[in-house]
Amino acid sequence: MMVYIFGGRVGVHMQLNWEFMIESLPLYGAAMWLTFKLAFWGILFSLLIGLVFSVILYYKVKVVSSVILAYVELSRNTPLLVQLFFLYYGLPKVGVHLSETACAIIGLTFLGGSYMTEAFRSGIEAVGRTQIESGLSIGLSKVQLARYVILPQAFAISIPSLGANVIFLLKETSIVGAIALMDLMNVAKDLIGMYYKTAESLLLLVLAYLVMVLPLSLVLSWVERKVRYAEFGD
Amino acid sequence: MTHPEEILLEIEGLEKSFGDRKVLEGINLQVGKGEVIVILGPSGCGKSTFLRCLNGLEPVQAGRIHYRSQDLAKPDVDFREVRQHIGMVFQNYELFPHMTVIENILLGPLKVQKRSRDEAQRQAEQLLERVGLLDRKDAYPRQLSGGQKQRIAIVRALCMNPEIMLFDEVTASLDPEMVREVLEVILGLAKQGMTMLIVTHEMGFARSVGDRIVFMDQGKICEISSPEQFFTSPSTERAQHFLDIFQYDKL
After folding, report:
1. CA-nearest residue of chain B to A139?
2. Which chain B residue lies closest to A150 (C-alpha atoms)?
3. Which CATH number does the domain B7-250 belong to among 3.50.50.60, 3.40.50.300, 1.10.3660.10, 2.60.40.420?
């Protein structure tokens, strides 16, 4: 495989250094594992927060709903980088010390929670009033109504946006290098800085993300088909 | 059954408004056990709202609804309990789209009434057999026709073993050829002595199934009479006018 870089009038060609790439693999492997861990916990907590918050918003619980709405606005209208800096550099000033990993997971959850809340909420709101009356008419309680009638339908409706959020959050982990975590992005930057092997490092970086995100995308569309089958057919 | 022996449901002076607009004014009605009441009236007369009040889907402002020594018009009624005895079927079927037919039917018996799966399943299958849809028990609602969905919705309500059934324009969304299969199910229930309140626009059906016709207009009951009397010589001008709308030869 050849990569040509053209500069000025003379075409300069550069061949990839395979040896370097193979030697760097363990570094990328470790970084992928870290990225995976951060994304896994961040996404899991985001989904839980989204589920709980959206139900609270749906039942219009006093005060709590207003707090959640304020959180959603704060979270969606500030960059993750700023949120991470706040957690990593700001909190220690008031005596709260968190590890880099904890900061990254909390930051990701803070960001993802609001996106998941909105995704679930749009699904819940799409379940018709008459479906709810139909559930009530057979004597279901509020909790049973949510569990058996509203949430399964809301989930099926929300799943494309939930899936998009999952992938978005996985990719957002690429900025945790800013708080000194050796994630994929940071490994690639380090290698470029130390060895000037820009093309090799970036190529490995792209491949590493693809290896993580592509299977995830496929799994998500499979889940989507499964969940939506009952309601929408094939 | 014009003089039922046992009064099951008694409504007195029921008032309901949406904001400033009164939709029900001083409704009085006694429903006897096994009686079939058909409620007729022009669109917006309050007949659907009336049924919804009986099932606690609409709060009321005044009046009383006596049922099982409770007053359903009070705000603190446990409608979860009441709804197990008063079943309701809606215009647009409202089956749960993510569940199969049998899951739709068993949700109430299993989760609300906590009955055993075997026993509830047996009853559900008997009911499905009766409406001719046992072979569709594992289908999803989207795979059924409108008439089939509505028959399933009726079975879902029946499987709770209700004492009273409310039918809210259950054939209004159906193609004409499917109306009949649904009405036949309701007619069968009437023959078995089920107490029913039926809101409909099917005049022929109203005449053949009803023990009494309740005619409503502008939130009030204008007249209550036997089907024979109502359809041949209604006592109010408004009812006569309403019936004329359905007589195309008078156009």
Report:
1. B80
2. B96
3. 3.40.50.300
